[in-house]
Task: structure prediction
Amino acid sequence: MQSPSERNDGCTLVIMAKAPRPGMVKTRLAQRIPVGAVTELYRCLLDDTLALARSLGNIEVAIMCPAADAETLTQLGQGAVRVVAQKGEGLAAGLTSVFAHFTAGGHRHVVAFNSDSPHLPASVLASAFETLADHDVVVGPTNDGGYFLVGAKTAHASLFDGDGMGTQTALEALLERARKLQLSVGFTDPFYDIDVEGDLTRLAAELRVAPNRAPRTAVWLREWGRTLAELRTGTEDL
Result:
């Protein structure tokens, strides 16, 4: 197996992750699906996301997480990826920590990626690094007003002030701050992450056709097919 230094050609993909603890991950999904099942789903999403990241080759893969989660994620990763504890609380602090940590000491291309889009085509991640060759910042927009990845070549202390990737105004706010900092911004193709029941239903349909895109998540979805069927029929109120 290649070491991180052997894979590294100046590009780092950092997964924004949490430890899969009940009640702490995918809380909106837990309104309709048992908490234990949602926790296992998150672990499947994270495992498949790491597999996607490692498939790129010649790119260092790391995890940025809340300090309280670092030990658990290190154990789950079995030493295959570097786990770094963020400074401060919340996603905005985590994103700030990504670029402060991984761009320190040299010119690098760093992309922060969420932990719940393992079905993303690898070509989109590759294109994010390519876009950084000609832009200060790269963003992967979601259809709900957020973004699933953001990349930069250096740290910009105020770029993530006040919010993070997952809110409905996150992309607009990020682009406004980038304009104020006079940073050029490039974009990847838009995609979606797994936040609410509709996202999960869409993912289930896609993975029935191509389960190899996120194999562990596909297994979880098959096992919980009855629950997903109830979500599709909408027989229960949100």
